[in-house]
Amino acid sequence: MSELALPLARSGFAASLPPFAREASRTAERPLAGRRAGSVRFEGVGKTYRAASGDVRALGGIDVEVPEGSVFGIIGRSGAGKSSLLRLVNRLEEPTEGRVLVDGEDVSALGTDALVAFRRRVGMVFQHFNLLSAKTVRENVALPLRVAGAPRAEIDRRVAEVLALVGLEGKEGVYPSRLSGGQKQRVGIARALVSEPEILLCDEATSALDPETTLQILSLLKDINRTLGLTVILITHEMSVIREICDRVLVLDRGEVAETGPVWQVFGRPAHPATKALLAPLTRGLPDDLAARLSLEARGTDDEEALVELRYLGTSEPDLALLAARFPGGLRLVDAAIERIGGHTQGRLLLAVRLGSEGLKVNAIPNTQAKVLGYV
Length: 376
Ligand SMILES: Nc1ncnc2c1ncn2[C@@H]1O[C@H](COP(=O)(O)OP(=O)(O)OP(=O)(O)O)[C@@H](O)[C@H]1O
Prior knowledge:
Elements: H1 5-11, H2 21-28, E1 40-51, E2 54-66, E3 71-76, H3 82-89, E4 97-102, E5 105-106, H4 112-120, E6 122-126, H5 137-147, H6 152-165, H7 181-193, E7 199-203, H8 211-228, E8 231-236, H9 239-245, E9 248-253, E10 256-262, H10 263-268, H11 273-279, H12 288-293, E11 305-315, H13 320-326, E12 331-341, E13 344-354, E14 368-375
Parallel strand pairs: 3-8, 3-9, 6-7, 7-8
Antiparallel strand pairs: 1-2, 1-4, 4-5, 9-10, 11-13, 11-14, 12-13
The site of adenosine-5'-triphosphate (ATP) has 12 residues, from strand 1, strand 2 and helix 3.
């Protein structure tokens, strides 16, 4: 059964008003903006799948907090346990150890009706959109509210609101087969938002999209986080996705926490080999031509320059006037990769510095880690 079909089946769709309909009508009256975000806490969480071929330990010893209102990225290699962890949040999977708390409430303790109401507080967006092909955009998006027995006028109003939010006005009567991948994902996001969730789970939401559409969907998710204030938890293989929109990141390695923290910190000073490996594609090495000419010892020739690497981590931007004053013999900017992540500067400069008679004073540059890589 698909995940989308699950609440349908539980509710007895065509049957009389389900017990959680009152809750749905109540939440329907809340304005779209300014609602509360949810927090998630994993306490000693483990997950072992029992399969005929043997047990698979997917997660172990997970102690992690997702702050409310944050965009929280989960990254790791294939099989690291990302999907398993995400699916514990809305109880598509049950932990075999520990507890998952959403707003302080143990998710495993919820009874059937409470679980249905709870799932409405946690929206989910899927890699392959999971849209119903025989239903129009409007019908796909309206489905969670229809299942919940919300009044017709309420459904129409809310569907119009979320379709406007995701930029799909005018597409209400279109069937999914006539939509691009990016538009399909917008429908998926609108459907996840229509119940006004506190938390939005995104399972590889951009993996099936081209790079340009990926950026548009990431920017939409960030806007939604800012405008509606809801917590977004996303899983991805791509560090660039994390860098683009996340505040915090959890790196999973073989079912365990490799490291976690603000993105600028984890990216700026990765501590775990798994993080370093994942970051490798984004890391700029020494340009090949320079590496070929680099000598580790100074030769003492007049035109010799030292190749100096300056690393900036969460501190102020490179002060070019200060650098010029610090290296009065002359300096050239050879390569630069400076970016801002979450309001913090990080990256590195490569300078070719003319060796003066006083020698190099690379350690006297504030807010940087400086290193002489060699001489050219
Ligand atoms: N239903 C299941 N039954 C048995 N084993 C499972 C099940 N679901 C996942 N696993 C196993 O648990 C481990 C973690 O899987 P999971 O899908 O959570 O990892 P992932 O990091 O999301 O991987 P990917 O990036 O490839 O999607 C893997 O070894 C996987 O084979």
